[in-house]
Design brief:
alpha+beta
């Protein structure tokens, strides 16, 4: 089980695979919300930057765990949400990006 109260990011090689599938560059690939979790993977709503999102299965081996807050490079790591309701996750995502507009 993933640990609550942490921030999760997708490893670069897997993020590149997602970008290729989408046919566009992405700015980040953070796990905004975990919708489902199995022993080996999570079904996650990914924050791809600039109000872009994608929902997909991500192997747990492709996740990097971070502490919530500002990292050593000055980037903010937001807490990953655990919510089974997809529509709620999308609404939380939209609210998150409203703060940056």
């Amino acid at each position: 089980m993933l640990e609550k109260g942490k921030s999760y990011e997708v490893k670069e090689w897997f993020a590149n695979k997602i970008a290729q599938e989408m046919g566009r560059n992405i700015e980040s690939c953070d796990v905004f919300a975990v919708i489902k979790e199995t022993e080996k993977a999570v079904y996650a709503l990914l924050n791809l930057g600039c109000d872009r999102r994608k929902t997909t299965w991500v192997p747990k081996s492709c996740l990097i765990q971070h502490e919530v807050g500002e990292d050593e490079k000055g980037f903010m790591k937001h807490e990953t949400i655990f919510e089974e309701d997809y529509e709620k996750c999308v609404e939380f995502f939209k609210e998150h990006w409203r703060d940056f507009k």
